[in-house]
Amino acid sequence: MNFFTLLAILFGFSFCSLFIGNGPVVIQALHKIYPELQSLENGNDTTEIKQLHRTGFHFQPHRHWMNGPNGPMYFKGIYHLFYQYNPEGAVWGNIVWAHSISKDLINWKSLKPALSPSKPFDINGCWSGSATVLPGLKPVILYTGIDTQNRQVQNYAIPANLSDPHLTEWVKPDNNPIVDPGTEVNSSAFRDPSTAWLSLNGHWNTIIGSRSEQTGMAYLYRSRNFLNWTKVEQPLHSVPNTGMWECPDFYPVSHFGRFGLDTSVMGNWFKHVLKVSLEMTRYEYYTVGKYYPMTDKYVPDNTSADGWSGLRYDYGNFYASKSFYDPMKKRRVLWGWANESDSVQDDVSKGWAGIQAIPRTVWLDPNGKQLLQWPIMELNRLRRKIVMMLNQKLVKGQNVEIKGITAAQADVEVIFSFSSLDNAEAFDPSWVDAQAVCSQLGSTAQGGVGPFGLLTLASENLEEFTPVFFRIFKAEANHVVLMCSDARSSSLKDGLYKPTFAGFVDIDLSSKKLSLRSLIDHSVIESFGGGGKTCITSRVYPTKAVFGDAHLHVFNNGTESITVEYLSAWSMRSAWVN
């Protein structure tokens, strides 16, 4: 099938992915470069793969470096995950589009890489992109290539055999690139084409991350045939002083219910979400707003900041995310990369680096101001032994161990309640940075209502533990809920990045209850506060609280007594990732 025949078929939904990396172009945003460690001849592929701190139910390759998801996709009964991968070492470099498939988003089988640098338009790098399933179930990958001039250009690839549901082989036609930066765009800051969507006027649209000086922006390109793309005069959206925008994601969310929407849906009964990954901060932020297809503009609502201090998917180790629409389950699913927090030497020694966070279902909060996130329901199939706790009162300074589960690999859901908020500490209006507040107050300093929560990956004598907890304050007009995941006491090992992560939880406390769910998996703790309003992922590396020596507690260090109204903790089986 020739190129024009294939791309004459365009209609359908799609998915995108992420940029990460460097190469001959000097863009060292996310990764320091270690040329001497990038390849097997220097990195020694005979290195024993260390099992300590490897996860049991998160996605990660058997060995070597992995960073962001290059977009998931559902095709003919199979979920596809592409991701940035170094097949020759445990540091960033030699990046290919690795490819794995699954029937349930939990258990995975790896295939040969889908894309590798090989042609003039990508010889210096196959960076992030997206995929669109065209009419007739015909997928097309869009991705950023680094060409012979070290420019970032946008290319496409197609399956070699559409009858193969595994999409094992991909072809990169020679008429690439299909989007050239030209002279108008900074060719060293022009990457990560998003999921394409179809407008009512018959144009396909995609956004590409960029910057002009320090103004971050999402350039909008349109095409009638998916081949010939034209840059719209103005970006879809831009924000001063935010720097380079990576991995832009743009999709609709319904005003009502949890069901997801195809990226190309049109109407007045939904809002749009624009997410970008900020190169300068290594955080992501998103806004909820209104898309005006007739004028090619996106206007955020005024309910959250449009910039560094805005809403985040996750306030911890979570970057380069990508969502996709799952037509079988009628949901939008979010993937994100949880990078390591240990040293390069540690990664080389253990033979691997990088995991993917558990896929999350995302939908619009009924208040219309933010998203809610929750682990996909398929994860529950890995639950086995359960321990429960009901109506356990915790007075000031008390902690109670949850015994009978494998605390190093567990899924914990808990509802805390409190009889009064009268003892809540006063909230300082200058506390706009939740992470700074968490760092200042911590989990052990006595408060009024809180700190209370979980002590995860705790050693027997609490030399090591990672607390995930709430603290409630009284502001002038309402109460403010702070959620923290504090890695400072997570390990006795030196040389680790052990930060506090935190976010505020916009929640009504009239019920005097707060919920928390934490997924604990050896070196990662993913936590969802307030039913998924605030999410925090932490990477930790305990030395004592490992395998069967890990413990789990509930605790309260506030003067107000807290009741564990309901707690369920499950030991988790390992997923199958081959």
Automatic annotation (TrEMBL):
<dbReference type="InterPro" id="IPR013189">
    <property type="entry name" value="Glyco_hydro_32_C"/>
</dbReference>
<feature type="domain" description="Glycosyl hydrolase family 32 C-terminal">
    <location>
        <begin position="398"/>
        <end position="571"/>
    </location>
</feature>
<feature type="domain" description="Glycosyl hydrolase family 32 N-terminal">
    <location>
        <begin position="58"/>
        <end position="375"/>
    </location>
</feature>
<keyword id="KW-0378">Hydrolase</keyword>
<dbReference type="GO" id="GO:0005773">
    <property type="term" value="C:vacuole"/>
</dbReference>
<protein>
    <submittedName>
        <fullName>Beta-fructofuranosidase, insoluble isoenzyme 1-like</fullName>
    </submittedName>
</protein>
<dbReference type="Pfam" id="PF08244">
    <property type="entry name" value="Glyco_hydro_32C"/>
</dbReference>
<dbReference type="InterPro" id="IPR013320">
    <property type="entry name" value="ConA-like_dom_sf"/>
</dbReference>
<dbReference type="InterPro" id="IPR013148">
    <property type="entry name" value="Glyco_hydro_32_N"/>
</dbReference>
<keyword id="KW-0326">Glycosidase</keyword>
<keyword id="KW-0926">Vacuole</keyword>
<dbReference type="InterPro" id="IPR023296">
    <property type="entry name" value="Glyco_hydro_beta-prop_sf"/>
</dbReference>
<dbReference type="GO" id="GO:0004564">
    <property type="term" value="F:beta-fructofuranosidase activity"/>
</dbReference>
<comment type="similarity">
    <text>Belongs to the glycosyl hydrolase 32 family.</text>
</comment>
<dbReference type="Pfam" id="PF00251">
    <property type="entry name" value="Glyco_hydro_32N"/>
</dbReference>
<dbReference type="GO" id="GO:0005975">
    <property type="term" value="P:carbohydrate metabolic process"/>
</dbReference>
<dbReference type="InterPro" id="IPR050551">
    <property type="entry name" value="Fructan_Metab_Enzymes"/>
</dbReference>
<keyword id="KW-0732">Signal</keyword>
<dbReference type="InterPro" id="IPR001362">
    <property type="entry name" value="Glyco_hydro_32"/>
</dbReference>
<feature type="signal peptide">
    <location>
        <begin position="1"/>
        <end position="18"/>
    </location>
</feature>
